[in-house]
Amino acid sequence: MAKKNHVPDFKKLAESLKHKAARIAGSESVKFFKESFVKQGFTDTSFDAWPKTQNPLAGKRTMYKSGKLMQSIRKTEETTKRVTVIADSDYAEIQNSGGYIVVTLKMKNFFWAKHIEFKDKNKKKAEFCKAMALKKEGDKIKIPPKKFIGNSQTLLNILKEQFEVELHTAFKQRLNA
């Protein structure tokens, strides 16, 4: 008796692959964007390092002191038509794109308190805080862009490679079943 050929359900296979591709795109994107904080810059077609901070209150690595901004990166949508990844932080946009912030009384008070805290401990930090506290309300402070999330050809290439492996593996399994 001849062996009966089984034709895989390609429509079902395609749907399964689309769902898997969305999961991979979401998780890999989050991982890729968080790596910007470790690398201290963003990779699109090439690596663009972040400018070093002039703020002595910051940690040794730019935008890495508390880790809150990095940890705020998450998937908000994951469908076969769309994957959305955001940085859910009040200051994500100004850090990613750059711009200006306005000096407020609350900021001035914060820096006066920090100046007093560092006065006898760390002259460099105390002087920085004093200079910030002496700024006038309404003055603008330029925040340079430190891109960590956005379009990236490198990320797209990573996803393409992973999708090709998944596709190859899925067809190989179906044909050998």
Concise synopsis of the structure shown:
The protein has 177 residues and is of the alpha+beta class.
Describe what this molecule looks like in 3D.
- By secondary structure, the chain is α+β, with helices and mostly antiparallel strands.
- 50% of the residues lie in helices and 14% in strands.
- The chain has helices at residues 10-39, 68-71, 92-97, 105-118, 123-133, 153-175; strands at residues 41-43, 47-49, 73-78, 83-87, 99-102, 140-143.
- The longest helix is centred in the first third of the chain and has 30 residues, at 10-39.
- A hairpin with a 4-residue loop joins strand 3 and strand 4.
- A two-stranded antiparallel ribbon has the order 1-2.
Residue fraction in strands: 5-15%
Helix content: 40-55%
User: What does the radius of gyration come to?
Assistant: 24 Å
State mean pLDDT (0 to 100 scale): 90
Principal-axes geometry comes out as elongated
Arrangement of strands in the largest sheet: 1-2
Counted by DSSP, the helix tally is 6
* Coarse structural class: alpha+beta
Distance between the termini: 19 Å
Largest sheet: 2 strands, antiparallel
Uncertain spans = none
What is the element string, with H for helices and E for strands? HEEHEEHEHHEH
- What is the number of E strands? 6
